[in-house]
Amino acid sequence: MKDPRILKLAENLVGYSVEVQPGENVLIEMIGTERDLLNAIIHEVGKKSGNVFVQLTDRKVQSAMLRNATKEMLETWAEIDLNRMKQMHCYIGIRAGENVNDLSDVPEDKMKMYNSIYQHAVHSEQRVKHTKWVVLRYPNDSMAQLANISTEAFEDFYFDVCNLDYAKMDRAQDALADLMNRTDKVRISGPGTDLSFSIKQIGAVKCSGQCNIPDGEVYTAPVRDSVNGTISYNAQTLYNGITFENVKFRFENGKIVEATSNDTKRLNDILDSDEGARYIGEFAIGFNPHILHPMKDILFDEKIAGSLHFTPGQAYETADNGNRSSIHWDLVLIQRPEYGGGEIYFDDVLIRKDGIFVLPELEPLNPENLK
């Protein structure tokens, strides 16, 4: 008998996250060896009279392909998969790989080509903008190890997070989205951080289980040239299979003019991918009550309760500041007391202190009210 939590997750993904309608084409991409959730999703799409298409991706095979990739090969690969993506109405992406570092031995120049030629065209421009999509991880030994807990404990945590009442969370987000829509100046302060920027007339977007599982954020973007000051991120982050920590940026008129980390050279190589990579494409506030600590998995880490992320690279068209890049790198700052604390101000009014919302209308987003 299948785990009822898997069946519930499949039902939520198909019926709530992407809302499959009769006759719609649904692409399910499974990275890794997990099959129970995949089969459950296929069954749910069938119940909705949708058309299922499946791609099985093996990271080790993908790594070998990328190490041997040429510009011409990547262009052909992108053309083939872009044509398929253009025929899809929905996309469900499941990441269940065994080793988060499988792509770490792909040369940097190859990864840059892959991101700019393939990922940007197929996913950033087509899938994100023109399909109903949701992306999620799937619990396995590798993820449990990153979270520093047993596999069984991680599975319990995972299903608590992924099967949260996202409709309730969606309602609780209304006040924050409305406030962000009315806000001009934002200031973020904390250890090693004193950052200011404007979000005037950019717009705010609620995230409550439609595009990511787990979920729990409201995002916007800074006016492109308005960012000034410094930010010191305190969550480890993976990019192209490489771990970065102690990332710190200094901004002048929107541009990252100084960037340091445990691997400063590689960090700056990424930020030099194109002009837009040194500008910010997203500012988001995270508040999933079950996610408390980073595990080098951005789909979880960017939703940490009491966190924010400030993202170099591509902006979303739904909250667009005009920044375009092949990079979109969500970097996370946690502001709960055990991570050093910190404040967020909107138009000089304190809205969150040490990870807790202090305005009455925002209190429904505090952890005790979302569980």
UniProtKB/TrEMBL annotation:
Keyword Cell membrane attached: no
Keywords, sorted A to Z: Aminopeptidase, Hydrolase, Metal-binding, Metalloprotease, Protease
Cofactor entry: Mg(2+); Zn(2+); Co(2+)
Annotated GO MF terms: aminopeptidase activity
Superkingdom classification of source: Bacteria
Entry-linked InterPro entries: M29_Exopeptidase, M29_N-terminal, Peptidase_M29
A Pfam cross-reference name: Peptidase_M29
Family the entry assigns: Belongs to the peptidase M29 family.
Name the record gives this protein: Aminopeptidase
Protein source organism: Paenibacillus ottowii
